């Protein structure tokens, strides 16, 4: 923190971000970004974000039903409400369901019931997050065997949530679900979005599932999909591409994905990584950028470092976003949050420390 201490002699007037852009960022802007995602100004409800490209086009949702069921062939179906999605496999002896998003909720029961009269015998948890399995208790009546990774069991064990019943079967590396004529292969390759987040693959139908990592046609949700381990999230793209699939179910957005979607987001993540590393490694003048914060907050190292992180993230977001507008949907909406998460990851998970590295 010695670098910040030295900055305390600067006046509030001596601020300006040297990041190669035509616009300057003043200290008011840095503070404003606590509540404004991209730039100072009105609330998000008033910001006009860039138009969505055709890559983000969803399937058409029946407004009366409120959901869409797509037949992927070979007894496999996917369900979406336009924001969340999941999948189920109809076998000769019962139904395997992957996840139970609460936003789809009872509509998932209707989707399955309108497809087959066979009971749900197995329920797979992709990971422990409630927004993907918070509807699991809706299947309690059919008493399905719940399968998940051991990490997911541990994360659900305390505190207990009756809406997410504990798994009955857990595993560490690989597990194959076989019900009648259907096979679903589960594997774990380390933490990415969360610990315990599974790669899932239906080999007969050449369908892959990985939840909350790739967002087909869209830039990632905030903080890289609220990723718990960014290096694992980055590596997950190559792991996913090692599967021989034609169709990809992502758990979010109202469309399916392909290998091309995975490749495209991999390039986005790599670009974000490189842009944020450049920002940390001299992409802006630290003394000029945070001098006013130091001067206004004597001895408050949290305030000093917060200003540094936010300017680094904004520099990265500014440098990255323009390349992805019109390529991925909503590339501007969470540009700052995604850059902020990458900056933090680079500092603590990759050892890219810029002015705070060992000299």
TrEMBL record:
PROSITE patterns in alphabetical order: PROKAR_LIPOPROTEIN (PS51257)
Keywords, alphabetical: Hydrolase, Signal
GO terms assigned for molecular function: hydrolase activity
Pfam (any one): Lactamase_B
Keyword Nucleotide-binding carried by entry: no
Residue ranges of domain Metallo-beta-lactamase in the record: 84-252
Secretion signal, residue range per the UniProt entry: 1-18
SUPFAM superfamilies: Metallo-hydrolase/oxidoreductase
Protein name in the entry: Metallo-hydrolase/oxidoreductase
Species this protein is from: Mycena venus
